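Write out this protein's structure.
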Amino acid sequence: MTSVLPSRTEAGAPVAFTDRHIGIGADAQARMLEVVGYDSVEALVETAVPASIHVRPRETSDIPVAATEAEALAELRELATANRSARPLIGLGYYDTFTPSVIARNVLENPSWYTAYTPYQPEISQGRLEALINFQTMVTDLTGLATANASMLDESTAVVEGMLVARRASKAKTDVFLVDIDALPQTKALLHHRAAAVGIRIVETSFAGELPEAFGAFVQYPGATGRIWDFSAVAEAVHAGGGLVVAAADLLALTLLRSPGALGADVAVGTTQRFGVPLGFGGPHAGYMAVRAGLERQLPGRLVGVSQDAVGAPAYRLSLQTREQHIRREKATSNICTAQVLLAVMAAMYAVYHGPDGLRAIATRVAQKADVLASALRSYDLTLVSDAFFDTVRVHVPGRAQDVIDRARERGYQLLWVDDATVGVSVDETTTDADIAAVLDAFGLVAGELPEGEALRGVADALHRDDEYLTHPVFHAHRSETAMMRYLKTLADRDYALDRGMIPLGSCTMKLNAATEMAAVSWPEFSRVHPFAPEADVRGYLEMIEQLERWLAEVTGYDAVSLQPNAGSQGELAGLLAIRGYHLANGDTARTVCLIPSSAHGTNAASAILAGMKVVVVACDEAGNVDLGDLRAKIAQHAAELSALMITYPSTHGVYEHDVLEITQAVHDAGGQVYVDGANLNALLGFARFGDLGGDVSHLNLHKTFAIPHGGGGPGVGPVAAKAHLAPFLPSHPFSQRAEHAGGVFDGGPVSAAPHGSAGILPISWAYVRMMGAEGLRQATAAAVLSANYIAARLREHYPVLYAGEGGLVAHECILDLRPLKEQTGVTVDDVAKRLIDYGFHAPTMSFPVAGTLMVEPTESEDLAELDRFVDAMIAIKQEAVAVAAGQWPADDNPLVNAPHTAETVVVGEWEHPYSRETAVYPVRSLIRGKYWPPVRRIDQAYGDRNLVCSCPPPEAFA
C-alpha cells in the first residue's frame, strides 16, 4: 500500500496541490502518530475503518491523475470557452445584472465573507448578521410585509415553502391550493412535484370567476407573460374562505409597483438574483420570504433579530428559529436548515450601494427599455400578450417563433420560445438601445431611431407605487466606493472566518476553499449564463457537469448523480422522493414508513415528512451505534409498509459502525431501500463507498467534502447519488438542456428552480477533484482522521471522548463530553464556547448530537501548529474551570462566565473582577500581536425572542 499522506514535493518539481491543501506533512505526521499510538497512517486508518467495507482497488478510474493548479485552470478555461457568449433575454426569473465591482471584490471574492460559517456563535458573527438584517429590511420594505427571513434557496422552492406556510396557518378545511396559470413554468413544475408527496391538490387557475374553496392561492406578480394586474380582489375572496395568499414578486419591479402587502398578500416570495448576483447558469442566488404580522413564527429558515449583550449593548443574533426550530423530526414543517447568506449579502449590499433612488432609477430604465421594444413591435402591427408589463414582452408571431429565435441567436441573443406562435423578450439593467435594435432585427423589423420609453405605460395608476421604502440610513450612507469599501471592511472585521484561524466544527467540515478552486466562479463564461440557455450555447457547462457527475458516482459507488439539489436538505428530499417514486412505480403504495436512528440530524426526519413518509425512530446503544435488536424489531413491525432506512455513515456520533452491512441487508430483505446520509463522506472518501455499504441513494454535501465554501451559512450544493434502479426517479426539470445523464435518464420531477441547481459554483468542486485526483482525495480522508484522533488523544485526559470505535479510535471528528466538567465546576458548554473566542477560536459544534458536548472536526487542511494551539486552549480552559471549582474565582465572576471579553471591557471604566485584564483578553501571550477582538459581549438570546425586532434598528440604538 502506498503512503496515505503526501510527502512534500521534491525540490525543483511542480508543487502538487495536495501539498497545498493538506496541512500536515511527513514530520508532523510522525509526531501525531506517536501521540495516537500507531506506527503508520495506514495502520491507523485501516483499524478505524472496518475491514468489511474497505473499497476494492480499481483497475481504471474516471478520475484523471491529479492536475497542477495551472493545468486545472487551463482545462477550466477550455470548458469555459465552449460556452457560447450570448446576451440572455429569456427572463423567467433570471436576468443579467451588473455586480458593482466594490461588491464583487470585497464580498464575492473575499475569503473574510465566503469562508465564514453560519452565525450560530453570534458574538463573532456581527458583521454577517448586520448584512443579513439589511437584507431582511430591504425585503420587508419592498414587499410591504412585516417580517422577512435571512434568505431562501431560490424562488421556486420559496414558493413551495410559502404554500406550506399557508397550509399550516389556514383555517380552510381543504387540501386545494390555487396556482396562478401565469406562474413561472419551473415553479409550477416544482409545486406539482412537491405537493403530490404531501397530499396537496394543485388547481391552476386564471382567477377569473368564482374560486373553489382553497387553503391558499399563489399569484405571480408580474406574471410569467409579463402581465401586471391587481390581485387585491382575489386576495379578499381567498381570505373570506379562510385561505392565505402567497405572491411571488420581482423586487426590482416593486420599486415602481404597489407592494404585495398592500394588495393583500400574506406571504411574499421571490429571488434577489437581479440585485447584483450573477446568473451562474441558475445559481446560487438568494431567494426571499416575507410574511404579514402574526405569521413570523411560521417562517421557515433563518431569521436574524436584534437582542442585547451582557452590558445592554445592541447585538444581532438568530431569532426564534435556530437550525432545529423548524426541523423538529416527525413534527417538521420544513426541512430547510440553510440559507444563501453570501448571495443575500451581495443583494443587500447592492441595495445599500444604490439606495432607493438608485434602484428606482434602474427599474425605470428597465421599464422604459421594455416600453421602447413594445412600441416598436406594435408599430409593425404585431400583437402583444399583455399591454401592462414591467420588463417582459411576449409577442404573437404565428408560425414564426422558431425563426425569430434562430435569427436572434445568430445575432448573439437568447430569446424565449413559448410556442410556435409566441416569443418572449425580457430586458434587464444591462440592456442597451443596440440590444433593442438587434432584437427588432431578429423579428425582421427595422429599428430606426428609438424613442424615449415610458415606464409602466399600460399599468393602472392604482398599481403605481407611492409609498417610501429603504428609508433607514444604511441605504443612504454609502454612495461612494470609498464609503462602501470601508463599510464592507468594517463588517468583515467583526467576524471570524477561516482567514483568521481554524473553525473546528464537527459535522460541518470547514476545510480550505482554495483560491484556485474559486477563480473560475467569476469568469463571465460561467457567471453570465442563463439556466435555460439552449444546449448549443452551454456545451462547456454540460461537459463539466457530466464529468463531475461521473467522478462523484465513482467515489460513492453509485451509478447516477444529479447535481440539481441546491442544499443538503434538498438532496435528502430528492433521494427520498426517488425512493417514493420507485415504490409507487412498483405498485407498493403502502410503503411509507421511514426508519431513522434517534441520533440522526433533524433534517433526516423533516425530509422524510416532506416526502410523504411516516417516521419511526430506531434506538441507539450506549456507544452511539444503531441498536440492531431494535432495528430488527421495527422492521418486523413495519415489514409490509417499510419504505426506507436513513442512516449516517460514519454515524452522527463520529464512529464507524461495524454492523453497517448487517443493517442494510436487513432493510433490503424486508423490501425497503437504504438512504445513507452523505454528511460525513469526508471520513470515508477513498477508503469505502456508500454504494458498497448497501446504500441505494445518498446526498452529498459539496460545501463540506468537496470544498465549496460555506459563505457564512450558504451557498451549499447537495447532489443526490443513486443506484441504477433509482436513477429514473432522480430530479428532472422542464428546461433541462439534456434528459440524459451519465447514469441514465432522470424523470423524477424538479427539486430546484434551475435544471442544474447552483451550477455557478460547481467549478469549485470540479477543480478540487481535478487537482486532488483519486489518491489525493484518499489522502485528505486519512489526514482528517489522523487529525481528529490526534485531538482526541491529547484531550482525552481533560475531557472524556464520548464515543469511539475500534481501538478507541474516532472517525473524522470527536465528541468531547463537558457534562462532567459542569458537574465538577459549574462551568457550562456555553462558557467554554464563549471563552474560546478570547483564545482566538470559533467554538466547535455545541450540544449536537448530545447536549452538553462539543463536537470537534479539525479537517485535513489545518497544520499541526493550529491543532496544537486549539488543544492548548482547551487544556487552559479546563484549568480555568478547575480554578473556579477550587474557589480561586467566584462562580459568578470569572473569565469563563464573563466571556467573551471585548476591548471596551478592559479599557473603559474601573476593572473590578477578581482576575486580571491580561487573563481576560490575553490568556496566552501569542494573542498579543494577532488577537481577534469580538465586537460584543455575550448575547442574551432569550431577550431577543421576547422582544422580536428583525429589521435594521435606528442609529441611536448604538449611541
